[in-house]
Design brief:
187 residues; alpha+beta; Aminopeptidase; 8-stranded mixed sheet; 28% strand; globular
Length: 187
């Protein structure tokens, strides 16, 4: 149902981070090894190893955008605000489905872990999504051995609802939280 839902802002701010949505042409340029459009959009460069680490995700998001998904639901650069640096990625796997469910994913680069960036970017993007009537629940799929993400899911109020076998990532535990009531939103 491309285009038939409310959407997120291009940039979502938290106290320390800017979560900047990456449109198709920027993703396309990153896949090709370029960085001019990315630098113009975010104000920072990206880590040299990033495109290779996330080539599958970059290609998937590019395809989703070309098929009509609004890029603001997808891939975002996580950039620190005080000393602008890209520290990771966050986004949803797509816009809300027919039941109003979105699935969040994020990755903080190893040099920037254990500083609370994962929790902060996930919490803020979830909060922004839950303000929209279209979102009824948020899901997260986490590898059983990913203790930091399991702790973040617990802190954010996710409940385990099952497990799945991902063709790339292997076994994942599936968590969900219902959208919280916010001002102007009827649940």
């Amino acid at each position: 149902m491309p285009g038939s839902y409310e959407t997120l802002d291009e940039t979502v701010l938290s106290p320390r981070l800017a979560l900047i949505a990456l449109p198709g042409p920027v993703i396309d340029e990153v896949i090709g090894g370029g960085n001019k459009a990315f630098l113009e959009l975010t104000g920072v460069g990206y880590p040299a190893e990033w495109p290779a680490e996330d080539r599958h995700v970059l290609g998937l998001r590019k395809r989703q955008i070309s098929e009509g998904d609004d890029y603001r639901w997808l891939l975002r650069a996580v950039v620190t605000r005080s000393h602008p640096t890209m520290v990771g990625r966050v986004g949803f796997h797509g816009p809300p489905d027919a039941h109003g469910i979105v699935e969040i994913g994020y990755r903080i680069d190893s040099a920037f872990r254990r500083r609370g960036f994962g929790f902060e970017c996930a919490a803020r993007l979830i909060e922004a999504a839950e303000r929209l009537q279209a979102v009824t629940a948020v899901r997260a799929s986490i590898a059983p051995e990913n203790e930091p993400s399991l702790r973040i899911a617990k802190r954010l109020g996710f409940r385990r609802i099952g497990e799945q076998m991902d063709e790339i990532d292997g076994l994942e535990l599936v968590f969900e939280r219902k959208a919280e009531a916010t001002p102007g939103r009827a649940i």
